[in-house]
Every structure is written in structure tokens, then in C-alpha cells.
Amino acid sequence: MPATAHVSPDEIRKGFSRAMSDMYRDEVPLYGSLLELVAQTNARVLEGDQGLAEHLRRTGEIQRLGMERHGAIRLGTAAELATISRLFAVMGMQPVGYYDLTPAGVPVHSTAFRAVHEQSLQASPFRVFTSLLRLELIENPALRSFAETALAKRSIFTPGALALIEQAETDSGLDADDAQAFIRQALETFRWHHNATVTAEQYRQLSDQHRLIADVVAFKGPHINHLTPRTLDIDQVQAAMPAHGITPKAVIEGPPRRHCPILLRQTSFKALDEPIAFTDAQGSHSARFGEIEQRGVALTPKGRALYDQLLNATRDELGAFPNEANAARYEQLMEQHFQAFPDNHAQMREQGLAYFRYFPSAQGLAARGQPDQPRTLQALLSAGHVEVEPLVYEDFLPVSAAGIFQSNLGDTAQSHYAAHSNRTEFEQALGRCTLDELQLYGETQQRSVDECMRVLLV
Length: 458
Ligand code: OOG
Ligand code: NI
Description:
Layout: H1 9-27, H2 29-48, H3 50-59, H4 61-65, E1 69-75, H5 78-90, E2 94-100, E3 108-114, H6 118-123, E4 127-133, H7 141-153, H8 159-171, H9 176-188, H10 200-209, H11 211-217, E5 227-229, H12 234-240, E6 264-269, E7 273-277, E8 282-286, E9 290-295, H13 301-318, H14 327-337, H15 345-350, E10 356-360, H16 362-366, H17 377-382, E11 386-390, H18 398-409, H19 423-430, H20 437-456
Parallel strand pairs: 1-4
Antiparallel strand pairs: 1-5, 2-3, 3-4, 6-9, 7-8, 10-11
Bound molecules: 2-oxoadipic acid (OOG) and nickel (II) ion (NI).
């Protein structure tokens, strides 16, 4: 009997991302307002900048812009992380990068599950920033053991989701009906629960230790805590937020505004206070917030080192965590320090600071098979036979992520942990290694060069 055709993991991810966005819009109406504001802003920016529209068309990004989202979850145990990794694998998402947030006072370490090939990213760029709580950082042994017991008791996946993950692994894929069932079942893991699993007093104790610990330990599952659309002009959206009833955090995380955006800029609005039924009383909890992001070019190790150096110098000079009171000075210091980072693509490329994609131009295609077609990439570029586009950064930034966490946890939540970063332990929990994002960008860049050569040098 012929096997039924499998749906591609890209299609499953696309369907899942849409279902998640619909669920979140139903649950958090402010997210819907944010989506509208971002869509309006993007349309206006594209209308006013034909050049930008043309660039986005060439790389295909214009099609993915409106569907682009990232979300975040926080897990409690190694077993949960291992299983979520298998769940995401069904949708073609792999763990990329390791982020240690403990130096910034957030007791988690994290990775980002996402598609890795440029074609898959084009089909659906959906990503999930996934954190694992570091329970060993709870100092009080009784509270730590309470947290461990509470987490050991819960099961964050439905039996249906677990069965379909196994089936997908055994059969190397799912058919259309099973893919739909998988999306429905998988979504349950990310749903919000109005009922906590602990008493109001237990919640208070966990929360006093760290609000993040309460957010993970006191609930049945790792509710999605935000979904982030991508904007083409984050400053415009930030400025327009208050008029739409949304109060943004004090500063935009990441690099300053530039002519040629680099890496990632992000801003968020504060988590909503939501009613919760503890096992013995009514109360409230805040976890779910809104965020927007603007993505720029991915940086090479050299470019990233320069970025980190300039960011650290700015923060050292500011001498404090950026907040309402020092926001203007922070922005001014950022502008000043980042003068040292070239703000045009040609210089960034020549100095090896960023990754790019290469495309055959109409002129290059017309010269195919002609004796005067240049033979090297550099010569093809100089002749205008190959065109260059920045390769978009697909990942996250640890300092920014910590800033987003902190703004939602409140300034009182700042803690100082002496613990070391522990990638090995994280990967043991995950059951596999995390991928190196820089290698992925390098591969995409190289594939685009190879393709130019293949097409132009016949
Ligand atoms: C994740 C915060 C980090 C980002 O975009 O950097 C993040 C969380 O609050 O769980 O979402
Ligand atoms: Ni985020």
C-alpha cells in the first residue's frame, strides 16, 4: 500500500505559528492592537521607501514580514526541555545558540528553536525563545525541594501530542490529518491556565524568591508569554504605542537607530495583571506581555565582538541599568559609542563585520556564457553582475533578552547569582547540542555565492 504523503515540517510550523497567533490574540486583545499598529507602520514605511521595498522583494522577505513572529516559554525540568525539543523538531525547528541570563540576574539559561535553512526561514520564520529554570539557584532547600516536587508532578504535554511526536519520529513525518491533529495537541502546551497548582502562600514564597520561579512552578504548563511581530521601524511604533493605549518600556534594547540596521532592536510593554485561582484563594499573576522587534543584518564574529564592546562601553559609562530616569542619556551614549560601527553595507562587507547574500543581477544573467563575464566574485561585484543584500539576523541577544525579562519582572526582581554559565548541563538536559548560529549564517552566505557562480559561470 502506498504511504500517504507527508506534510513538510515547514508547513506544520506555518500552521502552528498561525494557530498560536490566533490563540494569543483571543487571550490577549492588546496583542491584536499591536499587530494592527505594526502592520500599519510597515505599510507606511514601505510606501515611503521604494528602495527598501525593492531590497525586501529581492530577498523574499517582503512575503514573510507579515507572518513573522517569535514567542517565548519558560520550562521547569530537563525532561520538559528534552520533549519540547522533539516537539519542535516535528515542525523543523532546532535549538540554535545558548544564552546564559544568570549574569543579568535572571535564573535561567536558554536557546532559540527555529528553522535553520534560508528556504525554511522564508517559508516560516517562527521561533521560540525557550528558557530552562535553574532550580539549583533557589537557596532555600525546603523551597527548592517544594519546587522540584511540584514540577515532577506536572505533565505539560497532552497524551495525543506525545503519541504524534513518536509517530512523526518513527515514520519520519506526518500526513495532513495527523499534522492538523499535532498542531491542535501541541498548542495545548502553550495555553494560559487561570488555575494555579499551588496555594496563595506557596505562590508568595516562590515569588519572593524570584517572580520567574513562581511563573514556572505554580502553573500546569509553560504558557506562551509573548508573541512578537517584526516591524520595519521600531522607533515609529514605540512612539505611537501610548496613543494606542500601550505603554512601552523605557528604552529600546539592542543597537541604536542606524541607517543600516544591525542585529536586533526590541521593545516591550509591561505584563498584564491577570486573575488567578490558587488552590485555596483568588489572586493575580502577571506573565504575559507584548513585544516588537526590528531585525537588521547578522554580524560575523568580528562584527559581534565590536557590537559587544560598544554596548559594554555604553553601559559602563551609564553606570546603571537603563531605566526611565536615565533613558535619554542612555540613548545619547549609545549614539556616541556606536559612531565606531560603520553604517553602510559596503564598509561592513569590506571589513568583514556582517554576513551578506549574493544574487545574480539582470546584467550578470545577460552576460552568461559571454567571454567577458568576470570569473571571480569580486570582479562580478565590481562589474555589477552580482548584487549584495544583507543577511537578516534570525537570533536573539542575551543582554536584550535580560532587559526584556527584567522590564516585565519589575526592578525589584534584580538578583545577583554567582553561578557559572553551564552550557554542558543545558545540552545534557536538551539531549543534544545547540547549533552555532554563526556557522549557519556562514553557510547561507556561502550557498548564495555558490549559486551565483553556478548560474553565471556557464
Ligand atoms: C523571554 C525574554 C526574551 C527576547 O525576545 O529576547 C525574549 C521571556 O521573558 O521568557 O523574548
Ligand atoms: Ni521576545
